[in-house]
Amino acid sequence: MEVDSQEQLQRKQSTYLSLDENFEIQKEVYRGQQYSQIYFARLHMMRTLLYSLVPNWKSHLPVCTVLELKEGKECIIFGTLYKHMKLKPCILDEYSKERSVAPLIKPHNFMHQDDYLVLEDESGRVKLGGTKLSTSVYVTGVVVALHGKETSAGAFFVEDVLEAGLPPQIKRPLKSREDKYVVFVSGLSIGRSSSNPLQFQLLVDHITGHLGDEEEQGLAAEIVHLVIVGNSVEISRGLLNGQNLASKDQSRLCEPFKELDILLTQIAASLPLDIMPGSSDPANFALPQQPLNRCLFPGSTTYNTFRSCTNPHCFELDSIRFLGTSGQNIDDLTKYSEAKDKLDFLERTLRWRHLAPTAPNTLGCYPFTDRDPFLIDSCPDVYFVGNQEKYETCLLKGLEGQLVRLICIPRFCETGVAVVLNMRNLECHALTFGTQISS
């Protein structure tokens, strides 16, 4: 009877398609490229899109460049927003403060009541006025169309704003689907002094079906994919001080990777997994981060179920499109704008059709010369972001019938929480792993 029971518990399968080509850098070249080129590419693509939306928005108004503005004449202008911020960190200010006795204050948010927005195109720039365009919502790098007129002071009084809105979405097949689950986890931070190895092992045992009774094992068999969303390891800063490492320190440096590889090998033996780099992982700092080197995972890479992916990461499972980041894009938005919650930031990036609008202004990115890989041309079914303070989710509905599941994935090392998504209906829930023994 036991053998029959084991035979029935076959793990479900799903078809996988990687869509990371856009984020892959084949040959990194740093030969004096200017970041203006990525802004030009962004403006060109977004202006073409916004121009096609104008007939259904304000077809009676003329379209002008900044240079063609005339006082009192209503028109529409396209351009990239620049946010002038009084408290925005400046490297020269940092240097002067370090050499003075004044303490260096590092606020978590650099908003100030005197901040203002400027719109820029190839012909010039103009300061924006009015209350229609909120400085607390917008950030540098967003491309918009504005309806308004030039004032006697030389500013542009904004009367209305046109954003790109949610991109078109490929309709999912209407055929009936079965329950299949995707698990998301981020911020394992293996190597941190406060990390709990038992918690990690509980997560692995649950996913691989080595925990619980037959019913729980049956549910585990319906997990078809695991996505590890950045910050998997954490190296002590004391070991990264630029000095030659002693042999014992070299061993300590390798320990987190060895531990991670052991865990991933157990998972890869059971189901497919994707691992994305994060800000604390040994990958390039600038976005898009390239896949973690496979030599870090000698055990896991023996399985073809193991995939080292880019950050951002885009893929399809059974024709359902997933798009996500390890959190740097959203974390940067929290420093230079305000929102009621992190999900609001996720929604804005979709409405702006851009994953990382603050790159390269305040968020590091590769100096692309002919394209902007962070533009979102197709609306995902699931949009996730890792390494957040807490688990949050909602279902976003677009004006053209788009339906997107937004997910904030918390840091596992601090919360013990992973996120489970049902591909059949896009419903998701938190899965908490605790190791405290109640008295």
Structural summary, described in words:
By secondary structure, the chain is an alpha/beta fold. It has 2 domains: 2-28 and 169-236 and 247-432, Purple Acid Phosphatase, chain A, domain 2; 36-162, OB fold (Dihydrolipoamide Acetyltransferase, E2P) (Beta Barrel), CATH 2.40.50.430. Helix content is 23%, strand content 24%. It is built from 10 helices and 18 strands. A 6-stranded mixed sheet has the order 1-12-13-14-16-15. A 6-stranded mixed sheet has the order 11-10-9-8-17-18. Strands 3-4-5-7-6 form a 5-stranded mixed barrel. α5 packs parallel to α7 (247-268). The radius of gyration is 24 Å and the shape is elongated. Residues 1-6 and 101-105 have low confidence and may be disordered.
Brief synopsis:
With about 450 residues, the protein is of the alpha/beta class. Helix content is about 25%, strand content about 25%. Helix 7 (about 245-270) links the parallel strand 9 (about 225-230) and strand 10.
Please compute the radius of gyration using only Cα atoms. Answer: 24 Å
Total count of strands: 18
- Count, helices: 10
- CATH topology-level name of the largest domain: Purple Acid Phosphatase, chain A, domain 2
The level of helicity is 10-25%
Molecular shape: elongated
Structural class by secondary-structure content = alpha/beta
Order of helices and strands: HEHHEEHEEEEEHHEHEEEEHHEEEHEE
Mean residue pLDDT: 88
**First-last Cα distance:** 38 Å
CATH architecture of the largest domain: 4-Layer Sandwich
The low-pLDDT segments are 1-6, 101-105
EC number: 2.7.7.7
Subcellular location: Nucleus
InterPro entries: DNA_pol_a/d/e_bsu, DNA_pol_D_N, DNA_pol_delta/II_ssu, PolD2_C
Subunit structure: Heterodimer with subunits of 125 kDa and 50 kDa.
